[in-house]
Amino acid sequence: AGRSDNKLLTDVRIRQSIFKAIDRETIVKNFIPGANIAVRPDGIGFHDNIGYASSGKFIAYDPAGAKKLMADAGYPNGFDIELGAYIPYKEITEAIAGDLRKVGIRATVNALPLSVYVKQRGDGKLTTLVAEYPTFSQPNMINTMDLFFGGDRDYANDTAIKKIYDEGPKILDDKKRTELYRQAVDRINEQAFIYPLSEMPAVYVHSKDVEIKAGLTSITEIRPGDYFWK
Questions:
Q1: Contact 156, 2 (CB under 8 A)
Q2: What Å distances lie between residue 199 and 141, 166, 196, CA to CA?
Q3: What is the pTM of this model?
Q4: Burial, 219: exposed, middle or buried (Cβ in 10 Å; 0-12, 13-18, 19+)?
Q5: Which residue from 109, 106, 115, 121 is spatially nearest to 151, judged by alpha carbons?
Q6: Residue 23's pLDDT is what?
Q7: Among 79, 149, 166, 230, which one is least packed by beta carbons within 10 Å?
Q8: pLDDT band for position 10 (50/70/90)?
Q9: φ, ψ of residue 129 in degrees (nearest 5)
Q10: Is 201 exposed, middle or buried (0-12, 13-18, 19+ CB in 10 A)?
Q11: Closest to 168 measured CA to CA, from 196, 187, 155
């Protein structure tokens, strides 16, 4: 929507070039605890979230494609960009910045506490933000859509998404609402508004004599009934 001072991201080719420059698999394997079981999302949610669906049009890692898009947009020599980072994800953001620099995007990292980034987001001072949200605390796409496109959190101001945002909560039929949200997820992927990096699995340290059989009683929690002696 051009809310921040850096207007480069109003060009979809620039947004897509950033996404194509990110080596998600390498970052997940090196920085996400439990990477071997972490879900690589194909949009702004997970298929266990109520109402979530995606056509799988996630923008894949393609550094050569990133360079071409930048050149097509008039930036063959790259550009400068600041990556805002919620402090717990500073190192992940630095890894993303490293990937961007490999294709000529001169990224710097500004690590922020939650209270600061929330204020800056509301004031239109963020160009980008690397953060996380527990989608299973309120596991419905209505909530996820509100997180990204409600109030002063909306940095897209996209007509199609705003229409879905308004209509979604009014639809009581689960299948119809899910199909509507699929359109929003696909639009978000296509326009490169939000990059879905990784699930953050719950990680437990335990004795080698203990085995955890996750998912027996909950898809989102580890409970006492999931622990067994080997």
A1: no
A2: 16, 27, 9
A3: 0.90
A4: exposed
A5: 121
A6: 98
A7: 230
A8: very high
A9: -150, 130
A10: middle
A11: 187
Which tokens hold the place of 52? Answer: 């979530």
SS3 of the chain: helix, strand, coil, percent, to 5: 45, 10, 45
What phi, psi does 120 have (nearest 5°)? Answer: -65, -40
DSSP-assigned states of every residue in 94-115? HHHHHHHHHTTEEEEEEEE-HH
Number of separate helices (H) and strands (E) present in the chain: 8, 5
Q: For residues 70 and 72, what is the distance between their CA atoms, to the nearest angstrom? A: 5
Question: Among candidates 22, 55, 83, which has minimal Cα distance to 179?
Answer: 55
Those residues whose C-beta lies under 8 Å from the C-beta of residue 71, and which sit 6 or more positions away, are none
For 47-61, letters b (16+ CB in 10 Å) and e give eebbbbbbeeebbeb
- Which residues, in sequence order, are CB contacts of 144 under 8 Å at separation 6+? 44, 45, 49, 52, 133, 135
Q: For residue 223, what are the contacts with CB-CB under 8 A and spacing of at least 6?
A: 216, 217
91-109 residue pLDDT tens: 999 999 999 999 999 999 9
Q: Which helix (H) or strand (E) holds 227?
A: strand 227-229
pLDDT of residue 205: 83
